[in-house]
Design a protein that fits this description.
- The model has no long low-confidence stretch (mean pLDDT 83).
- The longest helix has 34 residues.
- The chain has one domain: Amino acid/polyamine transporter I.
- The protein is globular.
- It has 461 residues and is mainly α.
């Protein structure tokens, strides 16, 4: 092949196509390869997003309006001193929620249905009644906080009208939308929590002090601090999340076509466990990250300015305006409304799952109203009672404390049952807790019990 024409002829002879066509094909292949390489990170993110589900929405719902108020009060009253609780509670809540998710995946039934099957009925009824009461308090506090936050953005709006509006909208979403649409709504709504991360980014913070406080525990053991710690634990490791997580795993199985109990109780694969674990730990990390930044924001602004008496989430948002600027204030207020729209349905839904499963009623958001009147009836009653609470003379901080104490009472009782069931080879087979998970579970039970009793004691004394 002494010249270029000879080379061209050789290529055409070997590949049986014109050399020019072959060159274009090679160029096109190289372009496609480069495009695929660029798209791989995007594809991985998309796959990860599709994998997220009940764990993400459960974690996001954990930061409800009562939680925001608790974290805001923590930062404003104690500065960075209790910031370490964000990292401390993360593995505890993640392990507990993973236990709940595994129970749902393996048994194909919700938490209350499993308690009903394996424990005396009186245990189930006590847990369910206390859960319903605590959730109703939380719903009332959250609806009120959403209305107050809206008034910050629209001063002329009436409080009563706003509370009714948010109640009706939330009920309509639960009752009249399909589970698939509803699950997507909750999933996307979780992004509203990033408002609290952005609000922290807008203010001047001494990150050296933040990082030190994030890992070095500080405790005074005062009455007020015990209240707040109980509130933090109660709103972080919350009973309503246990019931919601378990039932949502079952709902997801039904959406995948496993409509019978037998099909849901078939072998749980390693892949299903891996996806569930990634989902749960992502959701819990997201929840505690938001908690971290709310405390940081309020500590760096409110506490630094001497504002230590923040009774509601709306108070915290209003106080931020002159200190952190209008944009940070808007983000905080919008976050309250958004997270309320996420958390209120979870609170009402988890109470309904518990009560409906306790009495073996037809259960599930995948069902239509006419297929599960009792299930949706509990949701409506819970929402209605929460609505009415906003027209009483209850102090918002007392409502928050009672809610936290209620969660502090219910959580240890339910946690004992969760650890026992998830550790039982008879119930869970090869998916039973390993020693590390079991140990963390019992540590969480002991911690919640001690703090709950300490809070009750401080209220009586």
């Amino acid at each position: 092949m002494g010249n270029k024409n000879d080379e061209v002829k050789f290529i055409e002879k070997v590949f049986s196509v014109p050399a020019e066509t072959l060159e274009k094909t090679v160029e096109t292949s190289e372009a496609i390869a480069k495009k695929i390489t660029r798209q791989q990170p995007v594809k991985k993110v998309e796959e990860y997003w599709r994998m997220l589900g009940p764990g993400l929405t459960t974690g996001a719902a954990d930061d409800d309006c009562s939680g925001i108020a608790t974290y805001s009060q923590t930062g404003s009253q104690y500065g960075f001193n209790l910031l370490w609780l964000a990292a401390f509670t993360f593995p505890l809540m993640a392990v507990v929620q993973e236990m709940c998710a595994r129970i749902g995946l393996v048994t194909g039934q919700g938490l209350a249905a499993n308690i009903r099957k394996h424990f005396p009925r009186w245990v189930l009824y006590i847990c369910t009644i206390l859960l319903f009461a605590a959730n109703t308090f939380n719903i009332g506090a959250d609806l009120g906080a959403m209305a107050k936050a809206t008034q910050l953005l629209i001063p002329g709006a009436g409080f009563a009208s706003l509370v009714v509006f948010f109640t009706v909208i939330s009920l309509a979403l639960q009752v009249y939308t399909t589970y698939a649409s509803y699950a997507k709504y909750l999933k996307w709504l979780s992004f509203i929590l990033l408002a609290y991360v952005l609000s922290a980014a807008l203010i001047n913070i001494n990150w050296s002090n933040v990082l030190t406080s994030a890992v070095v525990p500080k405790l005074d053991f005062t009455k007020d601090q015990i209240f707040l710690i109980c509130g933090i634990l109660g709103t972080t490791i919350s009973p309503y999340l246990f019931f919601w997580q378990t039932s949502q795993e079952v709902e997801e199985q039904i959406m995948e076509g496993k409509t019978t109990l037998k099909s849901r109780q078939a072998i749980t694969t390693d892949k299903e466990i891996k996806i569930m674990r990634a989902d749960v730990w992502t959701g819990m990390f997201f929840s505690n990250m938001v908690m971290f930044f709310i405390i940081v924001t309020c500590a760096a602004t409110l506490n630094a300015a001497g504002l230590t008496d923040i009774k509601t989430a709306a108070d915290a948002a209003a106080a931020l305006k002159p200190l952190a600027g209008k944009f940070a204030y808007l983000l905080f207020a919008i976050g309250i409304i958004g997270v309320g729209m996420l958390a209120v349905p979870v609170l009402a839904g988890s109470a309904s799952y518990a009560i409906s499963e306790s009495f073996n009623w037809k259960t599930g958001l995948y069902r239509k109203l006419k297929q599960a009147y009792a299930f949706y009836g509990v949701i409506i009653v819970s929402m209605a009672l929460g609505l009415l609470m906003n027209f009483t003379n209850m102090d918002p901080i007392k409502t928050l404390i009672y809610s936290a104490v209620g969660n502090g009472l219910v959580a240890p009782m339910v946690l004992v049952l969760i650890v026992l069931m998830s550790s039982s080879k008879k119930i869970m087979g090869e998916r039973a807790n390993r020693s590390t998970a079991k140990t963390i579970g019992w540590i969480t039970v002991a911690l919640m019990t001690v703090v709950g009793l300490a809070t009750i004691g401080s209220l009586i004394m």
